[in-house]
Amino acid sequence: MNVARSFNAWRKYRQTVTELGRMSSRDLQDLGINRADIHSIARQSVAR
């Protein structure tokens, strides 16, 4: 993976973590997401 792709993947990961982290626990629960799973979900979003 080149530098630009790595940087873009990192940005997407951070954006996902930030957006999910700002959501209330109730909103996350409505989506079926546990707060402890945020980093795992963010990693999955980059892997796609």
Automatic annotation (TrEMBL):
Source domain of life: Bacteria
InterPro entries the record matches: YjiS-like
Domain YjiS-like: from-to ranges: 3-39
Protein name: DUF1127 domain-containing protein
Organism expressing this protein natively: Rhizobium hidalgonense
Native organism taxonomy: Bacteria, Pseudomonadati, Pseudomonadota, Alphaproteobacteria, Hyphomicrobiales
